[in-house]
Every structure is written in C-alpha cells, then in structure tokens.
UniProtKB/TrEMBL annotation:
The keyword Transcription regulation applies. Pfam families: GntR. Keywords: DNA-binding, Transcription, Transcription regulation. Transmembrane segments: none annotated. One of its GO terms (molecular function) is DNA binding. The keyword Magnesium does not apply. GO terms for biological process: negative regulation of DNA-templated transcription. Gene3D superfamilies: Winged helix-like DNA-binding domain superfamily/Winged helix DNA-binding domain. Residues 1-44 form the HTH gntR-type domain. This is HTH gntR-type domain-containing protein.
Length: 85
C-alpha cells in the first residue's frame, strides 16, 4: 500500500485521518504492517466451514447469505452459533 504521506498527498486528507483509517483496517485484519517494510493488504481468507456447535464473533459487521439466497447483516459483536441439523 502507499505510505501515509503518499495517501495524504493523493487524497488531501489530514495525516491523523489516514492513521485512523489504517488503524481500522488493521483492527479488522484487512492490512498488516511489517516494520521497516511497509503496509500490505492481507490475502482474502479461505472459506471457513462451520460445524454444529461452532460460534463466530467478529469485530466488524457480519453478513450472512442463507442457502435460500436471503442476505442478513448483523452488527459488530454479534455471536453466531451453528446448531445441529
């Protein structure tokens, strides 16, 4: 990814705004900072198969696409539980 300075120069945003945005991306696991090397976008995670009894909790909103095609979005901190068939 571009440096904070490059993002500032390109978008004209305050450095603090850029730092906060990068902190959010880092907290959500979308980027990683490698000291002395830069900031990198993290590869998309593989599909995770859940089994009965598993739970999912996220620090970001969770979107669930049901087998029927219905899409539901749950707020940050929601715990999803997989129940047996």
């Amino acid at each position: 990814m571009p440096s904070e300075k490059d993002l500032h120069d390109e978008f004209g945003l305050a450095r603090e705004t850029i730092r906060r945005a990068l902190a959010v991306l880092r907290q959500e696991g979308l980027i990683e900072v490698r000291q002395g090397h830069g900031t990198f976008v993290v590869d998309a995670p593989p599909t995770v198969e859940l089994r009965p009894g598993d739970q999912v909790t996220s620090s970001a909103a969770i979107t669930v696409t049901r087998a029927t095609g219905d899409v539901e979005t749950y707020p940050t901190g929601t715990t999803l539980t997989v129940r047996g068939k």
